[in-house]
Amino acid sequence: MYARMAASTCLSALALCFTQTAGAQAAASQPATGTNNQTSADAGVADIVVTAQKREERMQSVPVAVSAFSGASLSEKGVQALNDLGNVTPGLVIPTAGIGGSPRIRGVGTQISQGGNENSVSIYVDGVYYPGAGADVMALSNVAQVAVLKGPQGTLFGRNATGGLLQITTRDPAQALQGNIQLGYGNLNTISGNGYITTGLGTGLAADLAIDYRNQQDGFGKNLTNGQNVGNSENFSARSKWKAELGDATSATLIFDYGRLKGAFPAYRPVPGELPLTGVPFAGGKFDVNSDVQPMTDNEDYGVSLNIQHDFAGVKLVSISAYRHENWAFAFDSDSLPLPIVSASGVVPDKMISQELQLISSGNGRLKWNVGLYYFNRKSGYSGVQFNAPALGFTEGFSTFQNTESFAGYGQLTYKLDDATDVTLGLRETTESKSYAASGAIHLLASGFNVPLGPTADSRNTTKLTWRTAIDHHFSKDVMVYASYNRGFKSGGYDPTSIAAASYIQPEVLDAFEAGLKSDFFDRHLRINGAGYYYDFKNIQLNTFRNGLPAIYNGKSAKLYGFDVDVTAIPVTGLTLTAGIGYVHDRFDDFPTAQTGLVPTGGITQLADISAAGKRLPNTPDWTVDLGAEYKVPIGGQNLTISADYFHSSQWFSDPENRLAQPAYSLVNASATLTFDHDRYSVRIWGKNLGNVAYASQLFMQVPVADVVAYAPGRTFGGTVGVKF
Q1: Distance CA 398, CA 546 (A)
Q2: pTM of the model
Q3: Closest among 258, 299, 259, 238 to 96, alpha carbons compared
Q4: Cα(315)–Cα(307) distance, rounded to whole angstroms?
Q5: How many domains is the chain partitioned into structurally?
Q6: What is the pLDDT of residues 574-633, one digit of tens each?
Q7: How many CA atoms lie less than 13 Å away from 478 in the CB half-sphere?
Q8: The domain containing residue 303 runs over which residues?
Q9: How far is CA 304 from CA 116, 130, 254, 405, in A?
Q10: What is the CATH number of the domain that holds 425?
């Protein structure tokens, strides 16, 4: 109810503002194109160029629900990492799984995306698919644009874009020497710095380098058992792009990246208000823990990619080759108690190579088309995992490895029926093989015996056809409607902790029906984009936790419907208002799921299975609302930019049983930036989660010990100084 009132109030205020100011607006100039959503006071809301269909197009002309942001806009909104993106995008939530975000769009997503499994929402950076969840690809100062594509994108982007796609584009290097440096300090003894430099290195060759470093030395809380910080982290990332023009029609872009993330997380504590197995309530602060194992994360990832393009007469050939490597070492206390009941440690190795070839029509005729071939090979798993349960009388060690090899061919064409109407048809066939191997042993502490587990091996082959059909109609240059039907699928795989016998997980399949509106009004001073949808979702990959480690199983099916709306407005010169509203009605169909219950004296007990029919999907709030305001005003020779953003999420459940819930919560971020000397120098103060709200980033039940939660970051604030050259 609160979310609906907030959304209604915002839209009413926008409408009132425009009825009073529309007559006073100056005539707009011609639309400005670019890769961002920065605005001009005279031109209104700027055109945004996206590559949602693997070609550069105006966002307002693409029959896909897209929310797009420039790097500068994200910085003003306090979006510093992937997990923050959900606060400014309707329909997108990003809970975490281990070290990285697991995006979920319109209720579609998979929280467990380690050990060789992948998410239902794909992440692409400069055209390269990132299968690992640990890469913090938004911590760099060279991000040019982030676009969120909603709904299945399986035709052009592949098998694991069932829920949608996060498409990150970085800046191209320039011939002229230019760059920027920022240094900052914040609460929790946080030091930060980032820099970007680009220059030409000869005729037709330019390169750049982006570096980001952030060290939060104090934690949001303490581990009451040992007095050490929890929630603190140190993050370093670097990215370099080299672009060569090899004649009039050919270019090559080589990209290197490296990242290292270390910290005391994930840190688990009992859910507030519940008694753990000991019957003793948790007595620490909201960000504190009380664990006999100090949480530890140490993740290293790096990669290289090569993009070669050649323009023929009316056709562009694109080749994208990539290699990625990731290694995550972890340790955490699964029971969240200061007792040696359940804990785990180990390493998650991950290696990937991919190759894509695209042919894209570049003419101006009625027919536009894309065809392509894609190859993907990934090896990942759990290596040297040690599961310790001394209070239960045993320890367990194991390793699992999962290999994925995938081939796909695809094509999509758009035909212009007349000057106002287009139809789009697309097909993709994917052939995929999965192989799995595992081995381990249980050590019984009382007798000293070792009980072998495995060795286990299995393999499966899958062939899936996915498609897209769409029609769009322009009532005018500024108003377009569209309707589409898409089928997407998420790759199957193996439960990464099934040691004694391999447990195969069936692929997800999603049929999506969508109708949408793209519209500009008042000489582009008001933009309203919205879409409504209906999803038929089958073989849903759900997660649970067994012995403190993640496990996966299939749920039969679910039906979802809802809508999301993006609004951008410039009612007066210098003021930009944004609003986003997402609504999801999601319900499982009938299939059995495990039921649990709280024990009055403490802990959790396993009850008889119940039907999931009528239950809501995990990590899916009914309502999300984001509101933003940015005001730019000149002060003498300086420019002041004041920005504030509000986000509200309604309640969501963590499990298909719908017993364990994150209550509704709201977040507020704000910043003020002063620039001078023609924007060469800047001073900025900022704050995130100003209400210091403790809301779950991970929430799960650990039978029989406790319901446990790991909280997202609390209040942070600080200042930065910067210089451009």
Answers
A1: 14
A2: 0.92
A3: 299
A4: 16
A5: 1
A6: 999 999 999 999 999 999 998 899 999 999 998 999 999 999 999 999 999 999 999 999
A7: 15
A8: 2-724
A9: 20, 12, 7, 20
A10: 2.40.170.20
